Amino acid sequence: MTESLWHPFSDMSAVAGDGAFVLARGHGAHVFDTSGRQYLDTTAGLWFANVGHGRQEIADAVAEQAGRLAHFSTFGDYATPATLELADRVAAMAPVAGSKVFFTSGGSDSVDTAKKLIRRYWQALGHPERDVIIVRERAYHGMHWGGTSLAGIDANRNGYGDLGSTVVRVAWDDADDLAATIDRVGAQRVAAFFCEPVIGAGGVWFAGTDYLTRARAVCRAAGVLWVSDEVITGFGRTGEWFASTRFGLDPDLVLTAKGLTSGYVPMGAVLVSPTVAEPFYDGTVGVWRHGYTYSGHAVAAAAGLANLAILEREHLVERVRALESVASQALAPLADHPLVEQVRSGTGLLAAIALDPQRRATDPAFSQRVVAGLRARGVLSRPLVDGSLQVSPPFVIDEADLKTFAAITADVLDDLTDGGTRP
Q1: For the chain, how far is it from start to end, CA to CA, in angstroms?
Q2: How many other CB atoms sit within 10 Å of the CB of residue 102?
Q3: Does domain 57-313 have CATH number 3.40.50.300?
Q4: Domain with CATH 3.90.1150.10 in the chain
Q5: Residue 340 in 3-state DSSP?
Q6: Residue 28, SS3?
Q7: What is the pLDDT of residues 149-180, one digit of tens each?
Q8: How many CB atoms lie within 10 A of CB 124?
Q9: Where are the alpha helices (DSSP H) in 226-297?
Q10: What 8-state DSSP symbol labels residue 224?
Q11: CA separation for the pair 104, 118 (Å, rounded)
């Protein structure tokens, strides 16, 4: 059968040759292919299945809402009960009290919404010259046009030419570089600093609490807006509802998606602090001409409410904090393997297994060989842009599965040692 699906982030010549790997259902931390074979999901789909797969409670909430009213525009003064309730629930857990919630269709929407909101905010305050946005090396901020312009990952920017954005990149782990860059550009020109509290797609890098504290102080002193990109870390991934809360960042904006609905329905949100929301609420801006057809989608909101209820009732955010050390201990022995450069872990259920750079240099397909070997043994992972393996399982994963994953990874690497190519 000819496959018509164009897969994202894929070499379609390879996909077309080998065919799609088709998954049919899921339960908890496991998914099953069309032949019924079970796989351990160590990536939560794509960082999103926080409550795990196959939650009938969310499916029932979605079906009930769809049967009553699937969606209606939220432009102007329109709303649905589910949308209003979810906004209140999210605002109540936001890192900054009194935050407003602007719903989007996903993480890339949230990034672009924030970028436009920041530009409009400074114009409303009479400072249109504040148009420079600072980002970090390794940063991933979505794949819309605006988000691509913010990318700290060169591979995601290459091939598109001039993206038409005033963006300055700084070191991912050096608050002094951030301060010096603001001084060089001029604080009066810098609009915002975008920061993933834990860098995700760029390789799962955590610069440390001291870095975040110092970088936040630099932005505060310069009057630069702080944007926490929590599309990955939001809704429990680091053992708090938001990493910004765990690290005391009091952000001006928070970008979310993924864990908001655990991926059951696409949805994102931008949490806007009272200070930044004020000119949009006091009449200064008037009509802000921005939004999406599916902003605040009623079915998505119902999914979000059911998802948050599960996270709270089953204490899954607290479970992440408890599993933080378990995951680190399970993965730590891999750091001694000759084909592993390092293991990065220790912040919630986020980790990366960095594979040997020399082996990857001589065998560009090495990371894919490791992933293929894992899949052959019933484990699903994926290589990140730096060649490391992503580890971000559903919050419901148990300790035994974490240890099994580490053991199977070691077995796969053993098979590939000394130039072996058998996955």
Answers
A1: 27
A2: 26
A3: no
A4: 12-54+315-419
A5: strand
A6: strand
A7: 888 787 887 887 877 779 999 999 999 999 99
A8: 17
A9: 243-246, 274-281
A10: P
A11: 16
